[in-house]
Amino acid sequence: MITELEMGKGESELELGLGLSLGGGTPAKIGKSGGGGAWGERGRLLTAKDFPSVGSKRAADSGSHAGASPPRSSSQVVGWPPIGSHRMNSLVNNQATRSAREEEEAGKKKVKDDESKDVTKKVNGKVQVGFIKVNMDGVAIGRKVDLNAHSYYENLAQTLEDMFFRTNPGTIGLTGQFTKPLRLLDGSSEFVLTYEDKEGDWMLVGDVPWRMFITSVKRLRVMKTSEANGLAVRHQERNERHRNQPV
Amino acid sequence: MNLRLPSKVLEHIISFIDSNEDRNSVSLVCKSWFETERKTRKRVFVGNCYAITPAAVARRFPEMRSLTLKGKPHFADYNLVPDGWGGYAWPWIEAMAKKSPSLEEIRLKRMVVTDECLELIAASFKDFKVLVLTSCEGFSTDGIAAIAATCRNLRVLELRECIVEDLGGDWLSYFPETSTSLVSLDFSCLDSEVKLSDLERLVSRSPDLKSLKLNPAVTVDGLESLLRRAPQLTELGTGSFSAELKPEAFSKLSEAFTNCKQLKCLSGLWDVLPEYLPALYSVCPGLTSLNLSYATVRMPDLVELLRRCSKLQKLWVMDLIEDKGLETVASCCKELRELRVFPSVPDLDATNVALTEQGLVFVSQGCPKLESVLYFCVQFTNAALITIARNRPNIKCFRLCVIEPFAPDYKTNEPLDKGFKAIAERCKYLQRLSVSGLLTDKAFKYIAKHAKKVRMLSVAFAGDSDLMLHHLLSGCESLKKLEIRDCPFGDTALLENASKLETMRSLWLSSCFVSFGACKLLSQKMPRLNVEVIDEHPPETRPESSPVERIYIYRTVAGPRLDMPEFVWTIHKNPEIGVSHLAIK
């Protein structure tokens, strides 16, 4: 393959220096032989093995990629399938409505107690949530996360940890450092998870019931704990303060 | 013999030329033709806002009345361009406000537009008539209110799929109380409810209104009331229908539609209940454009609607139409020119709809005028592609998205090379092509050889090596925009074909194996290209051979841009790093 390129196309004035292309030449067939060698730490080119075949026409052999993340559906690949964000949000909302309706129907058969009282506001029967932005202190590029794909806080925190810090041992995450798993929700790490609500206030994530959270969240921020001190205090503490004497 | 036309005559002749491509050719003939052309060009199109400075545009075209600008690369639609990359409208608006105060029309696509921009537009252009914002962001409904309040001659206000900070529905009340010259109003992307009475009164005092696209907050009752006041509409985007069906509301709505005898385009229809569809039957025979891509209606309700649309030229629909529905379209919609079929679920695993390659084959057989296709499908076959190409050599735009990456022909397990070869070979007028599925370098050899008129090409998860890129860059003569993601080529083809890049508007590469060193080399070699490396980590801190995440290359006469965020790197950003130890001849 390399020879076809080199012969007869000698018009090029560019001298390709050493080390310009990986492996010193045209990269060998990468996709099908699996493996993350070319990318190394930072991620790897997605290959056929990452996408389990719908019609199971091809065997999904997981043996050959060492230490790789489990095969993912195309919904977890950024920007694939190539549907504009307006349309994507609409599809996601439709799904949420369908599952919300199914939940409601299932719920009618159960006995509800106070704790599971649904405080979600629904507009036209739809749960209005889609992709929201997430930024992290010290990381230039923000991300978007699909709140509809999560149903409780730990789930969301795990996704964000995966997004910004790979939790597999021995991998370098987006911040370029080896890190231990974060505890974004319990305040024990150097970062906390915060969100901006519809009123424009920044709050700590985790205080209110999940359903209330997803209807009021506008965007998320993984904030340095040191900076989070001036934040809106926790729900209970705020209530307590109102009950007690002001200091 | 030196034949020279008097300049007045030349001016008169050139004034008949509308196409900017033709005008660009005219301006290359000689200096006097250049001068005459530039003084008569009223509609200016700038495909990349960073290719030229606003001042240069204003200077060249003193009679400009309409400006169209595009900002971010196309893949920004799919979240591949990080926020803050650029595409700011402000410098353009600011420059035009000073130098082209007679500007009447502004159309922006994928740009960052602030409320300040909108306020400046409202304040600066006395005879402002047309504002169309497509896939823009950065402004709020306050900015829209400023336009509504101040632009007394406003004819067109369209917000298409914008991300708007919605502060409520008040903006609508800012239109002047006297009759307006509104011809087209599109606020379908806004969330908040506008007061129905405001909307009714606006519609009543806008006698020229032909196109109205409502947002989902408008209910069935609202729609009916508006249609009664504007039976002259030719384009309608409905609100949402998801309320329960009330028989009285239904019959009123039916009647309102029956009175809209000029309706040609219908869209919106969010979550329309199938029970409402019969209300639309009266307008179906006249429809030329129908957008059902947000309507979660299934077969056979869809078919009942579509078989009445014999004049339909443009159909956008979800895969809920299934092969069966497309078979009906093929037999009933003989005027069809454009078909788009979108997925109904956002991820692959949940897809269980009976839409296959056969649906598109039906349409290609039955609709002789079909020239534009966008088709999302789980799997495909070479045979289907070959049949489609044979049936429809008149196709100009073919975008196939096989949703499962690397999916081969599911009947033969071969790559889809042969199928796309047929498309490239037979569709001689093909201008836009998106490929998908399992493809080897050969597919790109065929495309390069045959697709001589392709101007825009999109590639994802395809190819084996640098050859694929080499074929495309050395072969596709008319190529202007190339966007590639997740393909395994490196530096060689890019550097070998560097000069090609100056003949193109732009090249987007993401998740490929192009190294930082190659980007630097390319930049040094080609000073009239901006080579932008978009990467989380500053590339200077890594070895030259390490691949970069995203590269956006575009030709420009404006030089390096000054508004780059920290995650965009170009050679001009850190001049002290400059030339490396690599040999350059």
TrEMBL record, chain A:
Gly residues bias: start-end ranges: 20-40
PROSITE patterns: PB1
Keywords per UniProt: Auxin signaling pathway, Nucleus, Repressor, Transcription, Transcription regulation
Residue ranges annotated for the PB1 domain, each copy included: 129-225
Basic and acidic residues bias locations: 106-119
Protein name as annotated: Auxin-responsive protein
Pfam families, per database record: AUX_IAA
Organism: Cardamine amara subsp. amara
Record's function text: Aux/IAA proteins are short-lived transcriptional factors that function as repressors of early auxin response genes at low auxin concentrations.
GO cellular component: nucleus
Protein's cellular compartments: Nucleus
Region listing for Disordered, in residue ranges: 17-119
InterPro entries from the UniProt entry: AUX/IAA_dom, AUX_IAA, PB1-like
Comp. bias (Polar residues): 87-98
Superkingdom: Eukaryota
Subunit structure: Homodimers and heterodimers.
Chief localization: nucleus
The family this protein is said to belong to: Belongs to the Aux/IAA family.
GO biological process terms on file: auxin-activated signaling pathway
TrEMBL record, chain B:
Sorted UniProt keywords: Auxin signaling pathway, Developmental protein, Nucleus, Ubl conjugation pathway
InterPro entries documented for this protein: COI1_F-box, F-box_dom, Leu-rich_rpt_Cys-con_subtyp, LRR_dom_sf, Transp_inhibit
Highest taxon above the source species: Eukaryota
Subcellular location: Nucleus
Pfam families in the cross-refs: F-box_5, Transp_inhibit
Cellular component annotations (GO), alphabetically ordered: nucleus
Pathway: Protein modification; protein ubiquitination
Any GO BP: pollen maturation
GO molecular function terms noted in the UniProt entry: auxin binding
Residues annotated as domain F-box: 5-46
Entries under PANTHER family matching the protein: F-BOX/TPR REPEAT PROTEIN POF3, GRR1-LIKE PROTEIN 1
Protein name as it appears in the record: GRR1-like protein 1
Taxonomic source organism: Cardamine amara subsp. amara
